[in-house]
Amino acid sequence: MTQTTVSAPAAPATPGTPAWVERVFTARRSTPRAAFWSAFVALFAVSALWAVSNPLMASVDEPAHVVKAAATVRGAEDLSPDGAENGIGVVELPNLYLQLSLYPNCFAFDPDQPASCQPDLSGDIDTPTPVQTSAINYNPLYYAIVGLPSLLPGGGEHTVLLMRLVNAALASLVLALAVRTIVELRTRRWLGLALLLPVTPTVVNLLGSVNPQSIEVTGAALLWVALLALLHSPDAALTPRRLVRVGIAALLLANARSLGPFFAALIVVLCVASVPWSTLREVFRDRRLWWGVAAGVAACAVGTAWIFGASAVPDGGGSGIPLRDAVTFTLGNTSAYVQQLISALGWLDVAVPVWLYLLAAATIGFVVFLAWALGRSRDRLLLAGLALVVFALPIAFQAAQAQSIGFFWQGRYIFPLSVGFVLLAGLVVSRAADVLPGWLHTNLLATLGVGLVAVNVAAFAVNMHRYVNGAAGGWFSTDADSWAPVAHPLVLAALYTAAWAALVVVVLRATSGDDRRRALTSAETSDR
Question: What percent of the chain has pLDDT over 70?
Answer without folding.
Answer: 90
